[in-house]
Design brief:
The complex is a heterodimer of chains A (about 250) and B (about 260).
Chain A: E1 6-16, H1 26-34, E2 46-57, E3 61-65, H2 72-79, E4 87-93, E5 96-99, H3 112-122, H4 127-141, H5 156-169, E6 174-178, H6 186-202, E7 205-209, H7 213-219, E8 222-227, E9 230-235, H8 237-248
Parallel strand pairs in A: 3-7, 3-8, 5-6, 6-7
Antiparallel strand pairs in A: 1-2, 1-4, 8-9
Helix pairs in contact in A: 3-4, 3-5, 4-5, 5-6
Chain B: H1 2-10, H2 12-26, H3 36-56, H4 60-85, H5 92-95, H6 104-131, H7 136-167, H8 171-184, H9 192-195, H10 201-205, H11 208-222, H12 228-256
Helix pairs in contact in B: 2-6, 3-4, 3-6, 4-6, 4-7, 4-8, 4-11, 6-7, 7-11, 7-12, 11-12
Chain lengths: ~250, ~260
């Protein structure tokens, strides 16, 4: 049986090609050609994901855990279609909403209100639908008059609140969250949690990258443990978290 | 390609908003704001026509609109070719957030350039109204066609330069020099007759910029419709550039994000 929304990943390998960061200047190239001076050390391709196989069906809420650099964010970005795969394929059905680095794509000179428009349009909303959600976002972010001030006047907490409010108001079938669970003061955290739950209940598939195991326990019904771009364990949340906590306390392999 | 265009269409609110915002923010906190778009070439024209007019012994009244029209078309070309170079690089935060077709970012730049052109040309319209009111009707009638021609020419140029410059960052520098050379070989400020005694004159016939300039000059300055040749050359140039652009998008859009 096929679901309406799904993510099928087959033998996916994602590499960041070294050619993009090994760029030599003409001088270095000439020196290399003439074998003068120390040879510039060339960096290798970074393999972010190695041969990943994954099937995700409607209703699954997946927490992705692992150490820094294990490929968690790369996995989300590959699913969002941002990065091309070296080999393998990713097939998705459903409207994808991705929330990666929250501060990225904000315009510091524009007001909070204008930034709501920017980001909502970026994520695929229309002016009509933005009219509908704008007040809701402003209410939730509790920015008061600051909403008409340029973003450069905001404190970092206010920025996070605005970003969070926008991201959680825009709905989608498949939601990809990268470390956006924290932020704001204690009272906001509480509000944020209930709002997140609300969004999670509406979405058909959720994938969350987080280092906060409690959030993963609260939100997810399946967890994936990544290490060096490979899936170490995939299964029940508690089991996977336990395994991760056990290995993380041992020295790095 | 059909689905690519469809994705561009569905991102229309986004890139139109970006274009609008860029126009607004370009003159943020400036007293005259958007008016500079018209004032700048106008004042530049006065300076140039005073100096060149004296130097080359041409009547300023005739020469000024020639320079003005050359200036705003040239600004458009520079905006597409050199300005286009950075359109992907500056959009990196958006590109890394959401998968839109990359072509929308050079399109945004082109829309800004077109808007600038349309504002600046009001100055020329005003001049026409004051000095040769008979030419005004033809000018207004041809403006939509020349604007569309500029749009379908400027967009693929900006795509090509932005894609190339993202990978090969020296490209913008080289292009600026090439454009400088092209400026000398095009009748932007200099009238074609000034080239006549030189061997260079033949280059003007093979230079698409000559025909692009005619699109605006024929109606505004001489009260004529641009010739079919003018439109033909511009459209043919656009088609040729389009073919290169399609190839460029097919071969390099996928991996371009690694270079941003």
């Amino acid at each position: 049986m096929t679901d309406h929304c799904h993510i099928h990943i087959r033998n996916a390998t994602l590499a960041y090609p070294s050619i993009s960061y090994n760029a030599l200047t003409l001088k270095e190239e000439a020196f290399k050609l003439l074998r003068l001076g120390k040879p510039t050390k060339l960096l290798c391709d970074v393999i972010a994901l190695k041969d990943i196989n994954l099937n995700i069906r409607e209703g699954e809420k997946i927490g992705i855990i692992g150490r820094n650099g294990s490929g968690k964010s790369s996995l989300l970005k590959a699913i969002a279609g941002l990065y091309p795969l070296l080999s393998g394929e990713i097939k998705t059905a459903g409207r994808i909403r991705s929330m990666f680095e929250l501060n990225l794509g904000f315009e510091p000179d524009a007001t909070g209100r204008e930034n709501i428009t920017y980001r909502s349009l970026l994520l695929g909303e229309t002016p009509k639908s933005i009219n509908r959600i704008e007040e809701e976002i402003i209410d939730f972010a509790e920015l008061g008059d600051f909403i008409d001030y340029p973003l450069r006047t905001y404190s970092s907490g206010m920025m996070i609140r605005l970003a969070f409010a926008i991201s959680t108001t825009i709905s989608g079938d498949i939601i990809l969250l990268d470390e956006i669970l924290g932020g704001g003061d204690a009272s906001f955290q509480l509000k944020a949690r209930s709002r997140l739950e609300n969004m999670i209940n509406q979405a058909k598939i959720i994938m969350v990258v987080s280092h906060d195991m409690d959030s993963i326990r609260n939100i997810c019904n399946r967890a994936i443990y990544l290490r060096n771009g490979q899936i170490v364990l995939d299964g029940k949340v508690d089991t996977v978290i336990m395994e991760y906590m056990n290995t993380i306390n041992k020295p790095c392999l | 390609m059909g689905s690519y265009l469809q994705k561009i269409w569905s991102a229309r609110y986004f890139f139109l908003h970006l274009a609008r915002a860029e126009l607004r923010y370009k003159f943020r906190r400036s007293k005259l704001g958007l008016l500079w778009t018209m004032l700048n070439p106008l004042i530049m024209t006065l300076m140039m026509s005073f100096i060149l007019g004296n130097l080359l012994h041409v009547k300023m009244k005739e020469y000024a609109p020639y320079i003005f029209s050359g200036l705003i078309i040239w600004e458009f070309m520079m905006g597409s070719v050199v300005g286009g170079c950075n359109s992907l690089i500056v959009s990196e935060p958006y590109i890394k957030q959401f998968k839109h077709p990359f072509a929308i970012y050079p399109l945004k730049t082109t829309i800004v350039n077109i808007a600038t052109f349309l504002i600046a040309i009001q100055g020329l319209m005003l001049w026409t109204l004051l000095t040769k009111p008979a030419n005004l009707l033809v000018s207004i009638l041809t403006l939509p066609f020349s604007t569309i021609s500029l749009l379908i020419l400027g967009w693929p140029i900006a795509i090509l330069t932005s894609f190339t410059n993202s990978k090969f960052r020296d490209f913008a520098q080289i292009l600026a020099l090439v454009m400088q050379l092209l400026w000398y070989l095009s009748p932007v400020f200099f009238k074609p007759e000034m080239f006549q005694n030189m061997k260079l004159a033949v280059l003007l016939d093979y230079n698409p910029i000559t025909y692009i300039l005619n699109l605006v000059r024929a109606p505004m300055l001489y009260g004529q419709f641009p010739s079919l040749l003018d439109f033909g050359v511009v459209i043919c140039t656009a088609v040729v550039i389009y073919l290169f652009t399609v190839i460029k998008i097919r071969t390099s859009e996928k991996s371009l994000i690694f270079y941003l």
